[in-house]
Amino acid sequence: MKADALLGRDRIARRLSVTNLSSVTMRHQGKKSVIADFRAAPPPESPALMSALSAHPEEMAHLIAALHRRAVDVGGLLDLLSRIAREAVRLFPDVGWAGITAQFNGPPLTAAHTDSRVLIVDERQYENQDGPCLRAMRSGTAVAMTDVQLARAWPHLARVARQVGVYAVLALPLYANGRSVGAMNLYSQDPVVPMPDRDLLTVLTEYASRGLADFQNSAPSPSAEEVLRRALADEITVQRAVGVLVQLNGFDVDYAHQVLIDQAEDWGRTVIDQAAHVISDNSPSG
User: Fold this and answer.
1) How far apart are CA 55 and CA 75, in angstroms?
2) Which part of the chain is the ANTAR domain (predicted)?
3) Can you tell me the distance from the alpha carbon of 192 to that of 17, in angstroms, rounded to the nearest whole number?
4) I want to staple 88 with a disulfide (CB 3.0 to 4.6 A). Which of 98, 102, 215, 257 is the partner?
C-alpha cells in the first residue's frame, strides 16, 4: 500500500479519535455529509476501536453514526441492540443473520434479531437451557460451531437450525458492570463458522456491552427487566408461532409468517392472539 494512503488513514483515525473530536465530516460518493457529533455520547474508546478506525475509516464512520446513542430506557436499548445486529450483517459477508441474547435476573431472552430464524434457533436453546449463545454467556468465552458440531452436542437444536437454514454459529459474550449478561449471536447459511474482522467484531460487542450496562445502571430494578420482557413478549409470541408452523409443515420462515397473518384474518383475531392459539394448540398438553 502506498505511504500516502497509510498516512491518510492515520489522519482519519486521529480525526475520529474520541479524545479530540466534536464532529466528523467525510465525503462519500461525492456527497459531503456530517457523520456524527460525539460530544453527547462518545464511542467506547479501545485499542480495537482505534485499529478499526485506521483500517476501515469509511465503514467505521457509518458504524459509529448508526450506534451513536445511549440506552437509558427500554426503547433506547432495543433500538441500539437492533442496530448492532443489523450492522453485524452489513459488515460481515459470511453472517446471514444476527441476534443478541440478554439475561439480567430472569430467564434469557432475545433482545434483538435480524430475522425470524434467529428467534427460532434461540428459542430452542432457551427451552433446552443450553446451546452456543448460553454457553458463551455462562463461560465468558466465544463459542464457534458448525451444524455438524451442533448435532454432536445438541441434536434437536441442530435439526431445528438446519430446518430454517442455519448451518454455523458464532456466539460472543457481552458484559455489563463486570458480569456476563448476554451474547451476540452470528448465524451463517454456510457450513463454515463466520470469521469476521476481529477489530470490527470487538467494536460491536463493546457497543452492545455498553448499551446493556447503560440500561442496567439507569433502571436496575426487577421491574425494569419486566418492562423489557413485555416489550419483547408480543414479538416473541409471533415468532414462536412461526417456528411451530415451520416445524409442522416444512414452510420457509417468510411463508409461515404470512400463513399466521392469514389465519388471524380468517378467525378475526389479532396476529398475537392467533400466534398464542397456534402455540397452545400444538403444545404437548394441547
Assistant:
1) 32
2) 224-279
3) 35
4) 98
